[in-house]
């Protein structure tokens, strides 16, 4: 064989070896798609479950906000009950009034709910991997919940502002109503009329609420799931049983409400406040001022105003998310992990 023929043969062999076949390209593409699908799984499944749950419990959330703001506009008066508020709204404003601001709730959960659940699962999986695949401690779960909750709040606070204002607007006197058309109108008008910084008013208590909520809901759910599974003799070989999930999610709903309500009340007051038309001053200067004024005018128990509606919101919301997410995750894996 001549030197020229030898060089041609070597070139052909290198080309054949280097050039991937269509089958190899297809396998590589599928591998990349599966890696991306796996990374997106907690965000897609968590966000979908959170959005659906928020639509279902929106009337309860609306009543909760109005109960929290009642003490501010009606000092010294007894706060009406949840059924009273809902029946009054339906009677005077129509049935659709109990879904006022639902577009903002959907937008909020698509951003905030997706981030807080997706990041918590991502952080938890990383901690489990660092722990050689063994279960992580409650302290590590708490750390994951706090980190993911605070990051999610920083992303979703503008939608929270719009949600609170849309929910509380119709309860204000007619001359003081903002009359927002929808969530986007609320976001645009708020930034134009009061400045972009207003979209982040109440950020600190909202971050604290997000951290408390995620610890109470996600971290406590993970811990309660292990405890309930032990009591129920559930091996969780193919995931937790329905009884385990029900018990753990009910416990998580209670802890989420208990931990986060004081911060949620302060957040609602700061986000819904309006300048005094005479003095031009805000009712509250910040989180500390709001805390002091609530204690002085309503007492320490004022921080738990509307607990019945808040728990009625948190428990179903948590249970719907935590139960639904398992079914969504199963369908998601069947679609992408063929």
Tally of individual helices: 10
- Topology pattern, helix = H, strand = E: HHHHHHHHHH
* Approximate helicity band: over 70%
Biggest pleated-sheet summary = none
Q: Unreliable stretches, pLDDT < 50, 5 or more residues?
A: 12-17
Mean pLDDT comes to 84
Cα shape: globular
Computed Rg:
25 Å
Total DSSP E strands: 0
By secondary-structure content and strand pairing, the structural class works out as: mainly alpha
Strand content: under 5%
Could you give the distance between the termini?
A: 50 Å
Written overview of the protein:
- It is a single chain.
- The chain is mainly alpha-helical.
- Helices cover 75% and strands 0% of the residues.
- The longest helix is centred in the N-terminal third of the chain and has 52 residues.
- About 2% of the residues have low confidence.
Summary?
Helices cover 75% and strands 0% of the residues. It is built from 10 helices and no strands.
């Amino acid at each position: 064989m001549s030197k020229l023929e030898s060089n041609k043969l070597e070139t052909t062999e290198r080309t054949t070896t280097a050039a991937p076949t269509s089958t190899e390209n297809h396998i590589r593409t599928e591998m990349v798609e599966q890696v991306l699908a796996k990374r997106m799984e907690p965000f897609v499944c968590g966000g979908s479950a959170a959005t659906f749950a928020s639509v279902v419990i929106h009337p309860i959330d609306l009543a909760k906000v109005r109960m929290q703001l009642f003490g501010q506009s009606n000092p010294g008066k007894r706060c009406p009950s949840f059924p009273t508020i809902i029946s009054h709204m339906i009677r005077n404003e129509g049935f659709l009034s109990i879904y006022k601001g639902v577009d903002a709730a959907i937008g909020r959960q698509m951003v905030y709910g997706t981030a807080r659940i997706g990041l918590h699962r991502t952080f938890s999986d990383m901690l489990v991997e660092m722990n050689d695949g063994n279960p992580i401690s409650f302290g590590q779960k708490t750390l994951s919940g706090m980190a993911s909750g605070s990051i999610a709040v920083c992303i979703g606070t503008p939608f929270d502002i719009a949600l609170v204002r849309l929910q509380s607007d119709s309860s204000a006197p007619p001359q003081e109503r903002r009359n927002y058309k929808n969530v986007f109108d609320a976001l645009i008008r708020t930034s134009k009329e009061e400045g972009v910084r207003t979209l982040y008013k109440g950020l600190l208590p909202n971050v604290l609420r997000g951290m408390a909520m995620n610890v109470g809901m996600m971290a406590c759910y993970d811990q309660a799931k292990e405890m309930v599974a032990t009591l129920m003799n559930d091996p969780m070989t193919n995931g937790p049983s329905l009884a385990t999930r029900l018990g753990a999610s009910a416990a998580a709903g209670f802890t989420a409400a208990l931990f986060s309500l004081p911060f949620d009340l302060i957040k609602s007051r700061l986000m819904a406040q309006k300048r005094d038309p005479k003095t031009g001053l805000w009712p509250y200067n910040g989180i500390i001022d709001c805390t002091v004024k609530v204690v002085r005018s309503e007492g320490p128990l004022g921080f738990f105003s509307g607990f019945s509606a808040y728990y009625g919101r948190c428990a179903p919301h948590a249970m719907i998310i935590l139960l639904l997410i398992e079914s969504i995750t199963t369908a998601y894996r069947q679609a992408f992990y063929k």
